[in-house]
From TrEMBL:
Protein name per Swiss-Prot or TrEMBL: UDP-N-acetylmuramate--L-alanine ligase
Binding site for ATP: G119, V120, G121, G122, K123, T124, T125
Domain (Mur ligase C-terminal): residue spans on this chain: 323-454
Role of this protein: Cell wall formation.
Family: Belongs to the MurCDEF family.
Domain Mur ligase N-terminal catalytic, residue spans: 11-111
UniProt-listed InterPro entries: Mur-like_cat_sf, Mur_ligase_C, Mur_ligase_C_dom_sf, Mur_ligase_cen, Mur_ligase_N, MurCDEF_pg_biosynth, UDP-N-AcMur_Ala_ligase_MurC
Domain of life per record: Bacteria
GO BP: any one term: peptidoglycan biosynthetic process
Cell division found in the keyword field: yes
GO molecular function: ATP binding; UDP-N-acetylmuramate-L-alanine ligase activity
The enzyme's E.C. designation: 6.3.2.8
């Protein structure tokens, strides 16, 4: 089978095109003038609207007939069977080259200076901020960010031949679970690597935290002598890893000793003002963690030669992205937010951000746990993650398609465990009963945030319509 670079293909078919990473790559391909087709499930994804807006077609279901005669490259996601998907098998039978998303992303970045973000939590937002900052500075960056949309840029993916930089995320999850368990960032060669944090995640791939830290350190050591590791030393795990590598590094954070230390943070009026180095910056999205993410973007921009005035403009221009502490609506004095948070540390960060944003209002957290393996492995940490919420609503676990064992864990048990640390906790099962409960119990002035990496965002329309 002959190989082909996606940069030189004429017709690429994306298997699982509605995955956030796949959508971003599909839009990069479209910018290159490549014909793009795809296939996916009937289920509504956060990317449906984005694909429609950009005129990218897809068909429902995975069938060999979807591989048209002129397809010269197939890119497949790790989901939906991955390399064992029937369309992938059909392509190989026809002699059509197949790349995993991880391989294809690596190929799209060739010839560019790669700025990538690794870690657990903050990857998407930080990559979105760097993309925004470089765009505002007129650098014409290419980017592929795993999110439904970056609001100010109007797209999660773009390929610009004019610019030198390519911005993306570096995911430690498996390339094709059960078939190729190497980390997805295996194919990336970063010039600039940003690491906001490192925690134990994906226990189905990394049974111990030591397993995960080993692959992160191997990735860090790829940064070249003329590149830069940008590391948040507020995170103890990142701080330790920076001491085990000899690559060029700049640190940032609220901590004493950070090369770029955040100071004079003020919250109010729907914005965050803070100082880093000699600059004063304004950020229009909530959260201390977003101040950290913005600071990482500032360090990257400064390293890449962006002027101070453009750094200030770029940070202020950022208005968020889909499913990342996103305000989705306000009805009858009740404000609804949404976030992809699915790890205990992420839950704590989002709830702290909204508590700071709305110090006097009742905060209701609605959480849909994601995967049985993560819920079981981090069960005790999840139980302690909701301290900033006034009320906690727990939905059924959203299982991964690759999971066949519940591991003797469920959301009813999780709710009971959370009650050991929280006064008001309720288990509501699925989306319909959750919406019914919220419609009856929400009060004017409440702030509600839906949390999770599953399909919890599907209930926003019904929720906004019934409260």
């Amino acid at each position: 089978m002959t190989s082909i670079s996606p940069l030189h293909a004429k017709h690429i078919h994306f298997v699982g095109i509605k995955g956030v990473g796949m959508t971003a790559l599909a839009l990069c391909a479209k910018d290159l003038g490549i014909r793009v087709t795809g296939s996916d499930l009937e289920e509504v994804f956060v990317t449906d609207e984005t694909l429609k807006k950009h005129g990218v077609p897809w068909v429902t279901g995975f069938h060999p007939v979807n591989i048209e005669a002129d397809v010269d490259l197939v890119i497949t996601t790790g989901a939906h069977g991955g390399l064992n998907n029937p369309e992938v098998i059909a392509a190989r039978d026809k002699g059509i080259p197949v790349l995993t998303h991880a391989e294809a992303l690596g190929e799209f970045t060739r010839g560019k200076d790669l700025i990538t973000v690794a870690g657990v939590g903050g990857k998407t937002t930080t990559a979105s901020m760097v993309s925004t900052l470089l765009s505002v500075a007129g650098r014409h960056p290419s980017f592929a960010v795993g999110v439904g949309d970056i609001k100010v840029l109007g797209t999660p993916g773009r390929y610009d031949k004019e610019g030198r930089e390519f911005v993306t995320e570096a995911d430690e999850f498996a390339i094709s679970p059960g078939i190729d368990n190497r980390p997805r960032f295996t194919y990336q060669k970063p010039k600039v690597l940003i690491i906001p944090n490192i925690e134990h995640d994906h226990p189905d791939i990394y049974p111990t935290f030591e397993d995960a830290k080993r692959v992160f350190l191997e990735f860090i050591n790829r940064v070249p002598k003329d590149g830069l590791l940008i590391a948040c030393i507020d995170n103890a795990n990142v701080r330790k890893l920076t001491k085990q590598t000899h690559v060029p590094v700049q640190t940032y954070g609220f901590s004493e000793g950070a090369d770029y230390r955040i100071e004079k943070l003020e919250v109010g009026g729907g914005k965050l003002d803070f100082e880093v180095g000699s600059g004063r910056y304004t950020l229009k999205v909530p959260g201390r963690f977003n101040v950290l993410n913005a600071t990482a973007a500032i360090v990257a921009g400064e390293f890449l030669g962006v002027t101070k005035s453009d750094l200030v403009k770029g940070v202020e221009a950022y208005t968020g992205c889909k499913r990342r502490i996103e305000k989705v609506g306000e009805v009858k004095g009740i404000t609804v937010w949404d976030d992809y948070a699915h790890h205990p540390k992420e839950l704590q960060a989002v709830l702290s951000a909204l508590r700071d944003w709305y110090p006097q209002r009742r905060l209701v957290a609605v959480f849909q746990p994601h995967t049985y393996s993560r819920t079981k492995a981090l069960f005790g940490d999840f139980a302690k993650a909701f301290g900033k919420a006034d009320e906690v609503v727990i939905m059924d676990i959203y299982a991964s398609a690759r999971e066949t064992d519940t591991l003797d864990v469920d959301s009813r048990k999780l709710a009971e465990e959370i009650k050991k640390y929280h006064d008001k906790v309720v288990y509501t099962e699925g989306q319909e009963k959750t919406v019914e409960y919220l419609a009856k119990n929400l009060q004017k002035g409440d702030v509600i945030v839906t949390l999770g990496a599953g399909d919890i965002f599907h209930m926003h329309k019904d929720l906004l319509g019934q409260i």
